[in-house]
Write a structure and sequence with these properties.
Helix content is 67%, strand content 1%. It contains 15 helices and two strands. Helix 2 runs antiparallel to helix 8, helix 6 packs across helix 11 and helix 7 runs parallel beside helix 9. The longest helix is centred in the middle third of the chain and has 26 residues.
């Protein structure tokens, strides 16, 4: 295992410096978020956090030894995601255009990078015998692309409060790094840790606390989509390849909250005959705000839940709990989320508008 400390410091400090620099020139680039009916923050806020995190991560990767940098297909796909997100932050492009670009980036990561989910847990051998290797491989490719695109949008859609998407991404990356370390995937630990450091550098400007009443920088769509795509790729990487792998369903614990929030929103919006991308106040964080929880408490609470969910995957792996048990255990957060949403929205119509500071979903 290489010494992580200098790489983590590089990622953190680069992100801090780049956010501070881009924050000053963002208005000239048109990368700002202005208050509106859908975004009720105070004043004009720079939307440059995503670009800063990506630049810090990219520079950090270049400073690594070549064997530790990871596949170029991943970096290329991530660059496409960030570019489209930055254009969206500047011009507000249509959801279908974003979706096409996200799909192209996912295909780039999967096909060119030769990464696809191959470890489905104890059912892998049975599925291979029942379906045949070619059919199972094709299904895995499709599932991998769908998962990457889905998680990219999940983090984009949950990015609605100061520190929320960044905090949940940091929690997911932390547990993914520990899981990669546990199974001996040292190069992946460095790649994940470097992105985690960049996210923490961004959160210096994006988290509310007693000395800062509100965020001074947003990550924008470029940042939220990048984090979703990167975390999705790391999950796929941990469940694929010639090295030691982990069951894909077990890894879902580290990103289960944004996945559930997005799937739940899509289903509820379709049931009332609306577009899955139309705005409303049915996000999980909105429902918690409506219960009277303060803004900062909601972000901290959901980030804490993300830490708890990731801990289940890590402890379950360390304690060698059967993957079937951990997979079935996902029904617990699914049931809890469904029960809470049903109780919180019962008798309410979806309210148009959005209190999100960053997301346009």
């Amino acid at each position: 295992m290489p010494n992580l400390t200098p790489h983590l410091l590089n990622g953190f400090l680069l992100a801090v410096v780049l956010v501070a620099w881009l924050q000053r020139i963002a208005p000239r680039l048109g990368l700002v978020d202005r208050p509106s009916e859908r975004k009720r923050h105070e004043g004009v806020v720079p939307r440059c956090g995503g670009l800063a995190m990506f630049a810090a991560y990219g520079i950090g990767l270049l400073l690594l030894e070549p064997a530790l940098r990871g596949p170029w297909a991943f970096a290329g796909g991530l660059a496409v995601i960030v570019a489209v997100g930055a254009v969206d932050d500047r011009l507000d492009i249509r959801p279908l255009v974003r979706l096409v670009a996200q799909t192209f980036a996912a295909i780039t990561m999967v096909v060119l990078g030769q990464h696809q989910i191959i470890n489905l847990g104890s059912s892998t051998a049975g599925l291979a015998a029942a379906l045949g290797e070619p059919v199972l491989s094709g299904l895995c490719v499709g599932m991998t692309i769908l998962f990457l695109v889905g998680l990219t949008n999940a983090f984009n859609m949950i990015d609605g409060l100061d520190g929320l998407a960044g905090g949940m991404a940091a929690a997911a990356l932390f547990w993914l790094a520990l899981l990669a370390s546990f199974i001996g995937r040292d190069s992946l630990v460095v790649q994940i840790g470097l992105l985690l450091a960049a996210v923490l550098g961004f959160l210096v400007f994006n988290t509310r606390h007693r000395w800062r009443p509100r965020a001074t920088v947003f990550m924008g769509d470029a940042g939220s989509m990048m984090l979703g795509a990167a975390i999705g790729f790391f999950v796929v990487d941990l469940s694929s390849g010639p090295e030691l792998t982990m069951p894909f369903p077990v890894l879902l614990w580290v990103c289960i909250i944004p996945m559930l929030d997005t799937l739940s929103l899509i289903v509820r919006r379709l049931l009332v005959g609306r577009s899955p991308f139309s705005p409303d106040r049915w996000h999980l964080h909105h429902l918690l705000l409506d219960l009277g929880m303060p803004h900062a408490v909601v972000s901290a609470f959901l980030a804490g839940l993300a830490i708890l969910m990731g801990a289940v995957a890590y402890l379950g792996t360390v304690l060698q709990i059967p993957d079937t048990v951990l997979t079935l255990g996902l029904l617990v957060p699914i049931a809890m989320h469904g029960g809470f949403v049903w109780a919180a929205t019962r008798g309410r119509a979806p309210v148009a508008g959005h209190l999100a500071q960053e997301s346009k979903q």
